[in-house]
Design goal:
Length: about 375
């Protein structure tokens, strides 16, 4: 099953990349694809500035005329928001589909910073459930986590709902007006989104509908991604500080993953990764001042990772990194620590980080029984 993600001009490349990483973290039949060169723009005639004069309205969905369900709740916030009609958003997907000859049974989902007329997190086209959108902004009003987590969840929800809502009235029948922690919670009070993000579940009624429309292999893959998202979000919110540490796997391509934390991949540039792998190999620790003595080993790691520059240029970069007169190593160690801390929270990240006293040996304190090097 192919799911094509496209982005609006206002969505940052960083968040778009994070969403793709989250959705692609677990291998399986759901194939998430993106075209980073295709950016969807909106004309002035397609945008309306909506002023929320009633503070309750900002965090409340509205129901399109064709959906005959109730109701709403409240919370306070009064911003001015750029909005587009659902028809405009779905038309962006349809145009991209035609322009790029996307198969009729493949998804095209637009991730857009532009809000929508009915103030929904996401929606699929009632006339073609393979086209849909996810609103990427304002998540900070509903949960204390990076926007990439709920955005990825909403993408997956649209894919699952395509297989659940196969007949007229299925959406009205299966959507839960009262939140139960299911992917089909309607969340008319938008703050209720927290519950289904933390449960990452599908209720028995909705699961039966899903099984009627999607192969079990696809369902299992989707559930693994949902659980991975749930776990990574909880880690980022410091909710799993007392959990057991994950095994750290370095595969044959030197990708670094925490397989017990939702197969979380840590993304480092070649300099950061070569330095981190070096310290993983040296459990005894190495002082920064002693790194020039290991320059060849670090160069071998770096040259296997970097895709740019001649051998001489790579050598110069490594020379700069290990130079005792510079601060490159300390800067890279700080960046590595930040990436672990952002992903795992401060306490869980500690054993995975390079650390040690000033002037003394630096090391990664992680138990090496938890470090797995894959060679094939």
């Amino acid at each position: 099953m192919e799911i094509n993600l496209i982005k609006s001009n206002g969505l940052s490349k960083e968040v778009f990349s994070q969403v793709m990483d989250l959705l692609q973290a677990i291998e399986g039949p759901l194939q998430f694809k993106c075209d980073p060169l295709s950016v969807i723009n909106f004309g002035n005639d397609e945008i309306e500035v909506r002023r929320f004069t009633d503070p309750d309205d900002f965090r409340r969905k509205e129901l399109p005329p064709r959906y005959s369900m109730l109701r709403s709740y409240n919370l306070d916030m009064v911003p001015d928001v750029n909005t587009a009609s659902w028809e405009t958003l779905f038309d962006k997907c349809a145009r991209y589909r035609r322009r790029h000859d996307i198969a009729a049974d493949a998804f095209v989902i637009l991730l857009t910073d532009v809000s929508n007329k009915y103030n929904w997190f996401s929606a699929s086209n009632p006339d073609n459930h393979y086209d849909g959108f996810v609103h990427t902004e304002d998540w900070n009003h509903y949960l204390d986590a990076g926007a990439s987590f709920p955005i990825a969840y909403e993408v997956l929800a649209l894919v699952l709902q395509r297989s659940m809502f196969q007949h007229k009235g299925d959406m009205q029948r299966l959507a839960h007006q009262r939140p139960v922690g299911c992917v089909n919670d309607l969340c008319m009070n938008k703050q209720d989104i927290i519950l289904k993000l933390r449960t990452a579940d599908i209720c028995s009624t909705c699961m039966q509908a899903l099984r009627n429309g999607m192969p079990d292999t696809h369902i299992r893959h989707a559930l693994k991604i949902m659980e991975s998202l749930r776990l990574k979000m909880l880690l980022s919110q410091n909710f799993l500080q007392n959990s057991e540490l994950s095994r750290l796997v370095i595969d044959r391509f030197k990708n670094i993953r925490l397989i017990d934390f939702g197969n979380l991949e840590l993304r480092f540039n070649p300099t950061e990764k070569s330095l981190y792998l070096f310290y993983l190999k040296h459990a005894e620790g190495v002082a920064i001042g002693a790194l020039p003595q290991h320059k060849q080993e670090i160069f071998d790691l770096y040259s296997s990772l970097s895709l740019t520059g001649t051998r001489a240029e790579m050598q110069q970069r490594v020379d700069t990194l290990v130079s005792v007169t510079g601060n490159a190593v300390s800067e890279n160690i700080s960046r590595i620590k930040k990436k672990f801390t952002d992903a795992l929270g401060l306490e869980v990240a500690v054993p995975y980080c390079i650390q040690g006293p000033n002037g003394g040996r630096k090391s990664i304190p992680l138990d090496r029984n938890l470090v797995l090097w894959e060679t094939q």
